[in-house]
Amino acid sequence: MRILGLSIMVGLLMATSSMADDDLATARGIVEQQITAFLQDDVDTAYSFASPGVKNLYPEPQRFFDMVKRNYQPVYRPGNYAFGRALSDTEGNTIALELLITGPKGKDWRAIYVLKRQDDGDFQISGVRLLKLKIPAI
Questions:
Q1: Alpha carbon distance 119, 127 (integer Å)
Q2: Cβ density class 94-119: b for 16+ within 10 Å, e for less
Q3: So what's the pLDDT on residue 18?
Q4: What is the pTM of this model?
Q5: I want to staple 123 with a disulfide (CB 3.0 to 4.6 A). Which of 22, 104, 114, 115 is the partner?
Q6: Is 81 in contact with 99 (CB distance < 8 Å)?
């Protein structure tokens, strides 16, 4: 999955966060199902949650899976994780979800998932931005 452009994230942060509870629950369910598929090494299921744009970049499920393993280890093999903030655009067609993850070796990460509503009304994951969290010493 490609790192999202800053302009998309700024646009979402400025958008009204008036998403329907069902859309939020659906988006969270999609992210959790994809993470479960990664944990089970279920290539096809993990790939099924990717948007057409991601599938155009990675037309073969195994190539997509290998890219995630290489570039998104905290998402591929998360320890504990919890959802944080969620935002949507004013039309409710794009949702950004914050996921706080304890990744490999106990490192903490923030993943920002962006899900877009498709023509059939379903949401799919169109991108993930992964940021390492720096916890200040106490």
A1: 18
A2: bbbbebbbbbeeeebbebbbbbbbee
A3: 52
A4: 0.83
A5: 115
A6: yes
Q: For 58-86, how does the pLDDT look when each residue is reduced to its tens digit (9 = 90+)?
A: 999 999 999 999 999 999 999 999 999 99
Q: What is the DSSP letter of 106?
A: G
CA distance 94 to 71: 24
> 93 with 116: CB under 8 angstroms?
yes
Name, in order, each residue with C-beta under 8 angstroms of 130's C-beta and a sequence gap of 6 or more: 3, 71, 72, 74, 75, 109, 110, 111
Gap between the Cα atoms of 106 and 102, Å rounded: 6
Cα dist. 56→2, 5, 62 in Å?
A: 12, 18, 13
Rounded CA-CA distance 137/116 in Å is 38
